[in-house]
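Support case: beta-D-glucopyranuronic acid complex. Customer-provided input:
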Amino acid sequence: MLRTLFFLLLILGAQRSVADDGYRLWLKYDLLPDAAQRKAYQQAAQFVAVEGTSSPVLQSAVKELQLGLKGLLGQTVSVTAGAAKKQGGILLRVTSSANVTANDRSAKLNKEGYRVFSEKGNIVVAGPTDAAVLYGTFALLRQLQTQQPLTNLALTSSPKIEYRMLNHWDNPNGTVERGYAGSSIWKWYELPELLDPRYLDYARANASIGINGVVINNVNASARYLTPEYLRKVAALASVFRRYGIRVYLSVFWAAPKTLGGLATSDPLDPNVRRWWTDKTNEIYKTIPDFGGFLVKANSEGEPGPQDYGRNHAEGANMLAEALGQHDGIVMWRAFVYKANSNGDRFKEAYEEFKPLDGKFATKALVQVKNGPIDFMAREPFHPLFGAMPSTPLVLEVQLTQEYLGFATHMVYLGPLIKECLETDTYAKGKGSTVAKVVDGSVDNHQISGIAGVANIGSDRNWTGHPMGQANWYAYGRLAWDHTLSSAVIAKEWTRMTLTNEPKAVTTITNMMVKSRDIYVRYTMPLGLHHIMGQSIHYGPEPWLAKSARPDWTAVYYHKADSIGLGFDRTAKGSNALSLYKPEVQQAWGNPQTCPLNYLLWFHHVPWKQQLSTGRTLWNELCYRYYTGADSVTWMQQQWTQVKPAIDPALHADVAARLQTQRKEAIWWRDACVLYFQTYAKQPIPAPFAPPERSLEAVKQIVDIYQMR
Ligand code: BDP
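Agent response - structure generated as follows:
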């Protein structure tokens, strides 16, 4: 009896240990199911050889191939010397871009671009740098993971954007600002002596999608990272990342010369302050020779900055650019600023401060701009600074952590959100001047370009809390590398590498993912509503919020509901924020009759009874979207149930439970918003929808609970 129990426990334990806990992300490398295909792959990948001199980065490529092939094919692959005479192997070749070619001479590679091709019975992974070969290696592994043929290989790709950054909003005490996946993955008290193996897996994941820079600390920065004590810790992280082509950057606390350096001022034009930063920067490069540079949030949301001394953002950025001197580093200066101006429109404030500074930034300084003018809402029009600062390289900042998109309980695939921004035409230099082309530098011929994603990563075993959140990390990296990829293709690729290769399930999951962002918008902020979420923690709905420390932190500031209608008039009759865009954009969005409904209330105050292009009145359309949006979560649940046989049981159950929360909260949003806006619209909930079963007061209490101390 005892024996049976013992074995039963043993079996259960073993089963649990094989359950997919999500730690391996999209680099799972589970054995491929099709034996014939495995055999074909095995023959093509019998050995690995590094041509020429090896290096730590190439060693990473070799290790990854060995790991991947072992898992996917069950094949132990040795490293061979003098491979040129052999066949059936993978050759890693670093060579100048002119010599990379085999079958395809047309496409030029940039320094991180790779080419993977077949040559004399071998597979060659070639590129002009070690990092390029590493990226090519991951591309080759992706072919296997998604079960693509290896015959006549011709994969050619170069990143379109140079600085592909992940921004961590991690604090020295281990918390993560707007983090929903546990605490920080950086263990400051253990560093530099102890290197958590997780750092290496983090670097592998990033390299596999082409991310080449990480800002490890919050933009609301602590000066601690600039101390010798912490620089040694940062250097330890850098030593891990370096092997994967990733450089480390720091967010800086503007007032450090005063608080850390003991100076009387942090004025960027003060010679002592300048010297302090130059010395500090030299010290950093001594500790971390390939340090990437600085990210700065200044004079924003209470952070100190050059304006404290009557200087402007360019003067601040240029001082740091000067401190970087001959070092190979950059400054990313954030444009997320909005003065407390109760008569103004927050939409316009960053533009008004930064546009006049165009042409005043040093060569090494880039301006980092959020995708939209307010703050990472579920849908925003593109930031009017894109296309308005032709002399300044602009870094696009998107948020992967779901601060305004349901934390880690709502399934919201962000590929479509990022793509929507990238693909919108700014008309800066005529038709086709999309945000993507402004950012990649092609519109204004910039030599330097960047993109940043605010990380959704934490100490949770599966990294992102919501298992599907991994797709957002993945999609961001893939789009940072190549913004022409489709978000649906990326979703499919991720699903196949991470969840299942079963064709029907792949289609179902991809379809859910692609629709999920629009569904989220519908049940939270449809028709261009924005910033009506709960105060400070940004959780749940609070459209009635009318008092806060600043007017532009309330909801009523943005939705402007009254007895006549709803929405923020940003036309010439209103704040005229529309005038910040080029005439073509103004034309597209400026007329309430023709403005796309997704942006309607961003730019217009629309009467409740106004008939929209759908044939419904504004009120009815609003209700329609809230109700169908919430119902769509039920549809997502059904879809997820269908794919159950194809998904790891633990993982399936995890997502199913989160979908339950999502459904509950979608109804919460719907009820809160329709009941609240009804007090202005004074109309019934249209058929066939049933009015909420609870009162507005009852819904308000839920928000109160979450905001209790
Ligand atoms: C807002 C966040 C805040 C960040 C800020 C920023 O609520 O926590 O510090 O953005 O980007 O979205 O600086």
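The radius of gyration is 26 Å.

Case will auto-close in a few days if no follow-up is received.
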